[in-house]
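Long-time lurker. I teach an intro course on protein structure, and each term I like to show students one example going from raw sequence to a predicted 3D structure in token notation. This year I'd like something fresh instead of my usual example. Would anyone be willing to generate the tokens for the chain below so I can use it in lecture? Attribution to the forum is fine with me.
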Amino acid sequence: MVNSTISFVLWLSLLAYTCNIVHVMSQLPSGISTRFYDFKVQTKRVTKLCNSKDIVVINGEFPGPVVSAQEGDRIIVKVTNQTPFNITIHWHGVRQLLSCWFDGPSFITQCPIQGGQSFTYNFTMVKQKGTFFWHAHVSWLRATAYGALVVYPKTGVPYPFKYPYEEHIILLGEYWLKDVVQLERTTIASGSVPPPADAYTINGQPGPNYNCSKDDVYKINALPGKTYLLRLIHAGLNTEHFFAIANHKLTIVEADAEYTKPFTTDRVMLGPGQTMSVLVTADQPIGRYSMAMAPYMSAQGLKFQNISSTAYFQYLGAAPDALSIPPKLPSYNDNLAVKTVMDGLRSLKPPNIPKEIDTNLFITIGLNVQKCRSDTPQQNCQGLNNGVMAASMNNISFVKPKISVLEAYYKKINGSFTEDFPEVPQEFYDFVNGAPNNIPNNTQSLNGTRTIILEYGTRVQLILQDTGTVSTENHPIHLHGYSFYVIGYGNGNYDQDAANFNLVDPPYMNTIGVPVGGWAAIRFVADNPGVWYMHCHLDIHQSWGLGTAIIVKNGKGKFQTLPHPPADLPRC
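-- Reply from a regular --
Happy to contribute to a lecture. Here you go:
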């Protein structure tokens, strides 16, 4: 994965004659230096699992090019779409301070970049460093259009741990033999659930457990006695995964691009959208050790790919044909293994948690089944009990509008969204064990583009509650534009009187796995104006409507006010 940069001279000339971009840049936080990238969205023919197909990639690479910067740098990426598919790029975990226009989720902050068009993303890594990633945010193109975004500390600032001998990026993914755009369309049209992935991948390679994949294996050549930093990124679509290296300990030092107190474990679990940096020392006898990703499936009765993807952590001096030693991974439904890792995450630096709360939000998350209203039910109502699968927050399935919510909000265009997302559920009951489940008669949700409105500076506490309407499940919930303190989580229904909050050293994250049949509590200050998507990072749940948009109003002065939209903002 090689960085694809374009000429500095060409970019200077581009910025010189694009006066609006210059104007927008003058309002954005200024970076220490500027990093320029040129993304060409293309189709590429690849052969995996004994089959060839065209996939959407960036600059002909799968996974895509690495974007590198330092804390405080400005990043400018020109994206040119050379495919017939719509595209946007989201910079996952980047807070986009005063640059909401460049966040990337389709129909939330921008209309898609259509074939033959281009759009330039322009943002600054303000007080952020660590392991991020970028990915397509249209349809399910994230399946192949993704790559790492690594932001290093400022020059002269060391890591808060011993400097590793080498660093390696580990991208976890899922691969389908079918076209993923068509797969989403047929899945939604059927009203049913999607088929499992045909393979899991590590840096785009399935590994030898799959057909025709003996040589499609990623490998790290390890020097005995040396310590390596692995930047783990979960770019998969619909499945969460355990990751482990045979006979080796992993020491977590960063989660969601925030340093943590060192925590050593045999394995980790990442959901789609989560990143984690771990240290591993080559302290075992010379040999070939498997790095493996295997599914964590907390939902009941759902089919999933149960073949693990493997890569090699191979010591220098090991025989080229040495047998690989497999790791011991938890069973697919080991909820305790997930909790053990989460329990070990603690912020390294003293937190700045809001102690006083202005707005308390309580949001239920889960699946629904709608009644069939199709004239062709055999084709369109293949969900549970001949219904149509859906998902919701506070029993409202989010519907993306025809133009972006941000543009409609900024330009005061009526009719695209409403400002009445409920701050609490319409009814409180035993969400986990007593949820209505007479499918589909009492498992329906409302549809709408309802948003949450927050004044600038609002101190927010948000309770996320899993529900058992269809099945309890671990949901990786991602909030754009912010990181938040995970002050608590637990099993069952949230109980304010019994909840045990950590206000001393909670992890600071942007994607939280709400425990299966449980709850999570987060806090943040709404100090970044714009429209910010909050959604489940399991793409099928997002397609079914498990999300909402949070609108944060402008504050006072230009440093609390969203700048004007860029001139090349795509049109719908």
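Some talking points for your students: Confidence is low (pLDDT under 50) at residues 1-27. The helical segments are 8-17, 19-27, 180-190, 335-343, 377-380, 405-410, 539-544.
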